[in-house]
Design brief:
The complex is a heterodimer of chains A (112) and B (116).
Chain A (H helix, E strand, L loop, with lengths): L4 E3 L2 E4 L5 E6 L6 E7 L5 E8 L2 E5 L7 E4 L6 E5 L8 E8 L6 E2 L3 E5 L1
Parallel strand pairs in A: 2-11
Antiparallel strand pairs in A: 1-3, 3-8, 4-5, 4-9, 5-6, 7-8, 9-10, 9-11
Chain B lengths: L3 E2 L4 E5 L4 E3 L2 E2 L6 E8 L6 E7 L7 E2 L2 E6 L4 E6 L8 E9 L7 E3 L3 E6 L1
Parallel strand pairs in B: 2-12
Antiparallel strand pairs in B: 1-4, 3-9, 5-6, 5-10, 7-8, 8-9, 10-11, 10-12
The chains are: A mainly beta (112), B mainly beta (116).
Chain lengths: 112, 116
């Protein structure tokens, strides 16, 4: 059964550095999402992506964040200049329609 | 304002019993969707069940059913015949609108403990 995959599983970076988190959705997915979960807290919506463009973004998703689907398969989240408070688990999710959102295993980001 | 409320931070249930996890939501959008996810201690998010706002029947998936009461804006998850492996955090979530947004808001979660 196909699964959403994410790389890397863990990333440690210095404050101010750029990071790129990668996701490979299931091939027939049309809707894509990024979420983050700070340890022990609720899951926070970052951005949704459909038809090769951002559908909606949250207040968290400021100019430091960007998303791309560079080659029609990978789906990336870039944080340009990381802050300590960006430390979290980042999940991508995808769905063929709006009725499902299948999550990847997540990337744990630690900003030092 | 809180759009998804899960009032039970923790719940205990005896193995093989049924348990209901509460979720209330707030939206003025006539078109929305409600999800339940399970997050075991390993951290992955597992999709359990979905209910659309226009769906006439309550959603069911195996041992999971969603008790959708639209007028009360509640979408409680019922797990029948609890198993030890059901011990996990459970999140209710709401996706608002078909108008291109697809923003999905999560509740704070309920931690379920299944006792042998």
């Amino acid at each position: 059964e196909p699964e959403v995959t994410q790389t890397p599983s863990h990333q440690v970076t210095q404050m101010g550095q750029e990071v790129i988190l990668r996701c490979v959705p299931i091939s027939n997915h049309l809707y894509f999402y990024w979420y983050r979960q700070i340890l022990g807290q609720k899951v926070e919506f970052l951005v949704s992506f459909y038809n090769n463009e951002i559908s909606e973004k949250s207040e968290i998703f400021d100019d430091q964040f960007s998303v791309e689907r560079p080659d029609g398969s990978n789906f990336t989240l870039k944080i340009r200049s990381t802050k300590l408070e960006d430390s979290a688990m980042y999940f991508c999710a995808g769905g063929q329609g709006l009725e499902t959102q299948y999550f990847g295993p997540g990337t744990r980001l630690l900003v030092l | 304002a809180q759009k998804i409320t899960q009032t039970q931070p923790g719940m205990f249930v005896q193995e093989k019993e049924a348990v209901t996890l509460d979720c209330t939501y707030d939206t003025s959008d006539p078109s929305y969707g409600l999800f339940w996810y399970k997050q075991p201690s390993s951290g992955e998010m597992i999709f359990l069940i979905y209910q659309g706002s226009y769906d006439q029947q309550n959603a069911t998936e195996g041992r999971y059913s969603l008790n959708f009461q639209k007028a009360r804006k509640s979408a409680n998850l019922v797990i029948s015949a609890s198993q030890l492996g059901d011990s996990a955090m459970y999140f209710c979530a709401m996706r608002e609108g078909r108008g291109g947004g697809f923003k999905t808001i999560f509740g704070a979660g309920t931690r379920l403990f299944v006792k042998a």
